[in-house]
Design goal:
By secondary structure, the protein is α+β, with helices and mostly antiparallel strands. 55% of the residues lie in helices and 18% in strands. The chain folds into 3 domains: 1-226, 2-Layer Sandwich (Beta-Lactamase); 248-343, Helix Hairpins (Orthogonal Bundle); 346-523, 2-Layer Sandwich (Heat Shock Protein 90). It has helices spanning 2-72, 90-104, 135-144, 191-194, 196-241, 256-304, 313-342, 354-364, 366-371, 391-408, 439-442, 466-476, 512-523; strands at residues 76-79, 84-87, 107-112, 117-120, 147-151, 163-174, 177-189, 350-353, 375-377, 385-389, 414-421, 425-433, 480-486, 490-498, 503-504. The strands form 4 sheets. It has a 5-stranded antiparallel β-sheet. It has a 5-stranded mixed β-sheet with strand order 9-11-12-14-13. Helix 8 (354-364) packs across helix 10.
């Protein structure tokens, strides 16, 4: 007992985990996308701002150092003896450069071609004088005409961090020729790399946190709404498994999930309808088997034990024969249904006269037609019509349609036959007056086991298979069958055959049955 309880608990826990797993997957997947997007957006924005900042800083520093070089050039000369740069009248430009340095927060220094510092706005705090500037920096400045660097200027600023440094050459006259006699540089702290990221990241993370909370709420709601119909379908499917087809899924959207929910509900309707028809079929078959078998057994027992006198045997044997034929029809329908389900129902087409077949079938209902005083119309417009189809299967279709017409026509009503021909097909219409078919039953009329008259008050011998088999037969021939009806007025069945092999012949004289029927209509 304890083991069974544990197994049930494990099953419940498993179901709970399965139900929640899809929601968690949606949620985790959505959050992963959001976080990845935030990281990619932050990194991309950082790089873009950094490059934009560097480009703007480079432009500003290069422009400033160019103007400074223009100021310094008039007071700069070259000492050919000592091979060095000489700056005169430092008081003239020193104050100007110091003022510029203070305004833009940058170091301005001037070096000769050997990298030795000749002037610096930092004066006593100059870090450029103790060691010469790298020859590579000097060479690049002289060759390119300008220089820009984000870094430590080849180790000169190791102790103060990265800086933006721009430089241009200073030109002067040496032996009558214009040459580069020194270089002028300006260097400012790389504030973007040192200070801006902290502020930028603070702003970014605050905004990201607010957006993340909003998106978590949105993703959670969306994930729940996406998984809810799936949970409902799962619960409904479990109810279907135990025979309860009443469960439906609420359709809350018109997207793919909404279409899936609609399809699921349609499937549920179909299953419920099929289950109802299956139960009705079992009831019908039981009734169809029980009634004739009881009748046959009762009459045969009565004849054997002498209860029924000898002279009455032929009468009751006819009744037994009718009931046996009734059982035979039931077996035939069941066999046809089995062949359809297995895909073994094949057609063996050959040429035959459809009009003659129709008259033959109609003649078999002569007694019932006369007993109910039914009127037959439209046959005078028919002619001999040779078609290429399976005669046995077409006999079954026409027999079923005429049987239904005779069965459901009101007493003294009319059964009408009509023929239409086109270049592509022929259509035979069989109409009858009577109660008609309700609109809610039209869509199911060709389903297996379906009967519009649930009480069997009129359709006592039907099993709801005839029209289903008829439609299957017509589609095997490449044709189809349709129904039109208006309650308390008429019902019209139309079956259509393609014109392959159809041949028309001159009108022939109708048989005695048709003439008698037409005459009786005129008399009435």
């Amino acid at each position: 007992m304890k083991q069974r309880t544990d197994n049930r608990r494990r099953k419940r826990n498993t179901r709970f985990r399965v139900k929640r797993s899809l929601f968690k997957k949606y949620l985790i997947f959505g959050l992963a996308i959001v976080l990845t997007s935030f990281i990619a957006l932050g990194f991309t924005t950082y790089l873009f701002v950094q490059r934009s900042w560097e480009a703007e800083k480079r432009s500003d520093l290069t422009e400033n150092i160019t103007h400074i070089a223009e100021i310094v050039s008039p007071v700069a000369s070259y000492d050919a003896v000592n091979h060095t740069l000489v700056l005169r009248e430092s008081s003239r430009y020193g104050l100007t450069l110091s003022t510029i340095s203070g305004i833009i927060g940058a170091d301005i220094f001037i070096v000769d071609t050997a990298g030795v510092c000749k002037f610096c706005t930092e004066s006593e705090n100059c870090i450029h004088a103790p060691s010469a500037l790298s020859s590579m920096v000097i060479s690049l400045t002289m060759l390119q005409g300008s220089y820009f660097e984000v870094g430590k200027l080849e180790g000169m600023y190791d102790h103060v961090g990265d800086r933006y440094t721009a430089g241009v050459p200073i030109r002067g006259t040496v032996n009558g020729e214009e040459k580069v006699i020194g270089c002028c540089y300006i260097s400012s702290p790389a504030t973007f790399i040192s200070g801006l990221p902290v502020t930028f990241l603070q702003i970014f993370f605050v905004a990201a946190a607010i957006m993340l909370i909003i998106i978590i709420i949105f993703v959670t709601s969306m994930s729940f709404n996406m998984s809810r119909p799936l949970k409902q379908m799962s619960n409904a499917a479990k109810r279907f498994a135990v025979g309860d087809f009443s469960a439906r899924v609420k359709v809350r959207s018109e997207d793919e999930l909404g279409e899936l929910a609609n399809a699921f509900n349609n499937m549920a309707d179909s299953l419920a309808s099929s289950e109802g028809m299956r139960r009705a079929f079992i009831s019908n078959v039981s009734h169809e088997l029980k009634t004739p078998m009881t009748t046959i057994a009762g009459f045969i027992d009565g004849m054997l034990d002498g209860t029924i006198p000898q002279e009455r045997h032929p009468h009751y044997m006819k009744i037994v024969s009718i009931e046996v034929k009734r059982l035979s029809r039931l077996v035939t329908s069941m066999l046809s249904l089995s062949r359809i389900d297995r895909g073994e129902l094949k057609i063996s087409p050959q040429k035959f006269d459809m009009f003659s077949m129709l008259i033959t079938i109609l003649a078999s209902f002569e007694q019932r037609i006369i007993a109910r005083k039914l009127h037959i119309t439209g046959l005078e417009s028919f002619r001999s019509l040779t078609v290429f189809a399976d005669p046995d299967l077409m006999y079954q279709v026409i027999y079923n349609l005429i049987e239904n017409a005779v069965k459901f026509t009101n007493e003294g009503g009319t059964i009408n036959f009509a023929l239409e021909e086109t270049n592509y097909d022929i259509s035979v219409k069989i109409s009858n007056t009577g109660p008609g078919i309700p609109p809610e039953d039209i869509r199911y009329i060709f389903d297996r086991f379906y009967k519009t008259d649930k009480s069997r008050s009129m359709d006592k011998k039907g099993m709801g298979l005839g029209l289903f088999i008829a439609k299957t037969i017509m589609r095997l021939h490449g044709g189809d069958i349709f129904v039109e009806s208006r309650v308390n007025e008429y019902t019209r069945f139309t079956f259509r055959l393609p014109t392959n092999g159809v041949q028309t012949q001159p009108k022939e004289k109708k048989n005695n049955f048709v003439e008698t029927t037409l005459n009786s209509e005129k008399e009435e």
